[in-house]
Amino acid sequence: MPAEAFPLTAGRLPPARGVRYLCAMADNAAPQPPVEFETHPSRYRHWKLAFEGSIARLSMAVREDGGLRPGYQLKLNSYDLGVDIELADAVQRIRFEHPEVGAVVVDSALQRLFCAGANIFMLASSAHPFKVNFCKFTNETRLAIEDASAHSGIKWIAALNGTASGGGYELALAADEILLIDDGSSAVSLPEVALLGVLPGTGGLTRVVDKRKVRRDLADVFSALPEGVKGKRAVDWRLVDRVIPRSHFDQDVRDRALELAALTDRKADGTARELEPLQPEVTPDRRQYRFVTLDLDAARRLATLTVRAPAEPAGADAFPWHLRAFRELDDALLHLRLNHLDVGTVLLKTVGDPALVLGHDRWLAGRRDWLGREILGQVRRTLKRLDLTAKTLYAVIEPGSCFTGSLFEMALAADRSYLLASEKAATVELSPLSAGALPMSNGLTRLQTRFLHDPAQVERVLAHRGSFAPAAALEAGLVTFAPDAIDWDDELRLALEERASLSPDALTGMEANLRFAGPETLETKIFGRLSAWQNWIFQRPNAVGEKGALALYGRKGQRPEFDWRRT
Amino acid sequence: MPAEAFPLTAGRLPPARGVRYLCAMADNAAPQPPVEFETHPSRYRHWKLAFEGSIARLSMAVREDGGLRPGYQLKLNSYDLGVDIELADAVQRIRFEHPEVGAVVVDSALQRLFCAGANIFMLASSAHPFKVNFCKFTNETRLAIEDASAHSGIKWIAALNGTASGGGYELALAADEILLIDDGSSAVSLPEVALLGVLPGTGGLTRVVDKRKVRRDLADVFSALPEGVKGKRAVDWRLVDRVIPRSHFDQDVRDRALELAALTDRKADGTARELEPLQPEVTPDRRQYRFVTLDLDAARRLATLTVRAPAEPAGADAFPWHLRAFRELDDALLHLRLNHLDVGTVLLKTVGDPALVLGHDRWLAGRRDWLGREILGQVRRTLKRLDLTAKTLYAVIEPGSCFTGSLFEMALAADRSYLLASEKAATVELSPLSAGALPMSNGLTRLQTRFLHDPAQVERVLAHRGSFAPAAALEAGLVTFAPDAIDWDDELRLALEERASLSPDALTGMEANLRFAGPETLETKIFGRLSAWQNWIFQRPNAVGEKGALALYGRKGQRPEFDWRRT
């Protein structure tokens, strides 16, 4: 294997000057400029996105000096959050702007190297909360690829024209098919355990045994083998689907992409529009989008997310309310996670005419075209992002709010909901979108998860016509508390103060365990089991201590020193 | 609530002298005397075990000065590992020695206090690997209670004659029914998040939402409420099954226990025998039981577990081979976990006549009596304990070995297996016990988990008559590698050296993720998702740092200081 195709062998990279103690320092480092999540293909620095009939080609060509933050070089198609933000954008563009596309080929613009995974020096110099939230975002992006395959008729081929190691192979694992060049050297590998003393951070272990169903003992050998597996053995072990000689690799990839694209039910019907830029107005305490407002109260470590109902009935707008509002909500959640780490609690509010929300929900539920499906997918994925946000979520349901259907899902996603039982009562209401269109990561709807103890209650509340008055909503179990106007302020204030006093780590762990009752899926395994273990390891001296494997990576002649006790 | 019934409010306990920095120090503390796991009701210090016809009564009466290690007092029915070892023994005794019992009442010998949970000062002064392995053992003990309910016709009532907080309520959650005294003060609670900045460590969060199916928002309120919930609300929220006034609490508990006991299919048929003591011969490098040998190679951080085949055909012995051998294996695994933390890799070997193992497996598979069911349960639980042991497991299959049926499950539980393909070939063979009698925690057999990619292969190997020769075993996917005699030594040596060089934390995380492909259950959720989060939190400065909540617990006037960043 040529040196440039396998970057993760210690000593082959230039020594990481000053990285050694950064991992500890980073937790107290000065604030970084905020991360922005909006981009556009015209501004991509790390990916080339090209279209040829029914095929899109997404080629990774990471700019070494294009890191989101200073201090590391993105050599060998290694990535940081900035690279992944472009990938997430590309997935969105293909879904919404290119209905003619039925298959996507993900490859590399480099020779003999597909992708070296997440940049180690970026990881080693990142604070723990950033590292964890970075991994969460990359996980969601890979799940968005699988979501597009499952729901949108877009099939994905990882065309490994060179070695895919670590996060590079994990990106390939998100595709429907992995085609590996058979050139005697290109391999797939998960070298994290062996070289860095951490786990693959983007679902690799789970996808190897649960998606590709690699036999667990072979998965063990593979996951401890830094050089990885290539050629026929990679196929025999189910790590890739095919190996193809260099001479006809490009042709075979293209042929297969055309075959897969031919299966799609997408249709270029002239309704596709370029996604609008969100362009929020930003002040230090507020991020104001068209339908979403994010208010920040730094002193209380509190944020308020308010979603406004549509202003007009459904039907006319080229950019329907759901698409715009949930894209804004998605962006706001990412800002909360990455740029406002100190915020511990998020109040979820809505404002506007419930009848208009209901009308838009009915309109969306009734659409049968590709674009309707995509808009619904945006709502579904944004709500999953909400479920997976490591902040306490309290829904606050006041008069003038519109917790109806798709917006009521926000209240169901919340850890608790408070409904003000006043004279001019706030109400909640279900819609056709409440019945199954917006499942959680565990495969159940939020109503099913809520009423695990009494599945018939799901049917009962769905059969209810009209809105639920406060007492009825409480009785039906749709809200947690319904204080009257006299108690409202005190009760809410106390709930917020109590929550704000608790350990943020204990709350993250508690919420992650209580939100996902019921069945487990690949997604919940990745975010629950795998991520929790990775977070633990990311915190351990054996990885990030002065002599830890991650901290010492790339420092010639220095080997990590471990506390050998098994935990 | 009286002070003595609610110990977890800071300031109500005497200050913990010297505990403050122990949690950091403990990781480098001097070696402790080994923990012993064998005990006998005649030696119990913390539990009273009494029998009345079809009911057993297990009353918690923890001796304050009876801690396993010095430095903490077991006040208020709080427990340490020593208390839980007795509980685990009591569960075993009831199963094996009291077939007349169909229901067990677990209560407290104290007034107005059921159990205060794991002792905080013990936790705060324990090293991280000990803490994690302690929690794993207590989890397994609670699962053994549920296993006895599911498989052995023994129903469990937690009779909360006082407050059950933290691990006390988690113990109650393992029972089939929770009856709480209604005295105006006794409550159930999970105060860990609010008071200690950690998670309940014994499955509490999972059982609340997944077993008792408490609505997730109510579970959120409950799990953040240090004083807990009592009376009617505890029933309404599904936290307990009934509340009963003090005046007829004892009578109602007894009546209900009799009702449940009447449902059992257990029978006192005169075959019950007191469990033999194991009495291994112990030297620094070896633990020698009758059928199991544990050899320790401290320099290589390597252990070898060898299980011997029965010496005689099945049928005559009052203590059949399976019962004895798997009890020994169970004990050896606990020693490995708690007393040999540095051991990273365990070689699994067998020796003896495969035909005798097969004979015993067939004999056990054919038994239809309560004792056969119990012996099978011992095998099942021991193999689960093996699956859940955080050490690398390599099965070594050499000539003279007997990896047949129940013993071949050890090879299937291993992360890898090495079979020596010599002239006098070692073989592997399935038995009637391979087909479903010994499921893993995920609910699948080890063969089903292994062949997730090809369920028909399970049927094919089960249909195979006789043993598999090396080439056939390799071809069928039953072993990982089958080197010949020339390569054998080198290959095994290299595999062990490579493994021994890797980060023990990364290996623990990797193995925990690769071993449990397929469906998830309450058990796998507890050991995967919940424990991984707890381990993470147990390692975080917000819990165990100098100003962490766990470290400062009980120190009057000192409040924890948190790094507020959400992760």
Describe this structure in words.
The structure is a homodimer of 567-residue chains. With 567 residues, the first copy, chain A, is of the alpha/beta class. Chain A folds into two domains: 26-261, 2-enoyl-CoA Hydratase, Chain A, domain 1 (Alpha-Beta Complex); 285-515, 2-enoyl-CoA Hydratase, Chain A, domain 1. Chain A contains 22 helices and 21 strands. In chain A, a hairpin with a 2-residue loop joins strand 1 and strand 2. Chains A and B meet through helix 4, helix 6, helix 7, helix 8 and helix 19 of A and helix 4, helix 6, helix 7, helix 8 and helix 19 of B.
> What spatial form of chain A do the alpha-carbon principal axes imply?
globular
Overall CATH architecture of the largest domain in chain A: Alpha-Beta Complex
Strand order of the largest sheet of chain A: 13-14-15-16-17-18-20
Low-confidence stretches of chain A: 1-25
Rounded to the nearest angstrom, the distance between the terminal CA atoms of chain A is: 35 Å
Largest interface: A-B, 93 and 92 residues
Mean pLDDT reading of chain A: 93
Q: Look at the structure and name the CATH superfamily of the largest domain in chain A.
A: 2-enoyl-CoA Hydratase, Chain A, domain 1
Strand content of chain A: 15-25%
- Helix fraction of chain A? 40-55%
How many distinct folded domains of chain A? 2
CATH topology category name of the largest domain in chain A: 2-enoyl-CoA Hydratase, Chain A, domain 1
Structural class of chain A: alpha/beta
Summed up, the helix count of chain A is 22
What is the radius of gyration of chain A computed over CA atoms, rounded to a whole number of angstroms? 24 Å
Q: What does the main sheet of chain A amount to?
A: 7 strands, mixed
Q: Kindly state the number of beta strands of chain A.
A: 21
Under the CATH scheme, which class of the largest domain in chain A?
A: Alpha Beta
Query: What's the oligomerization state?
Result: homodimer
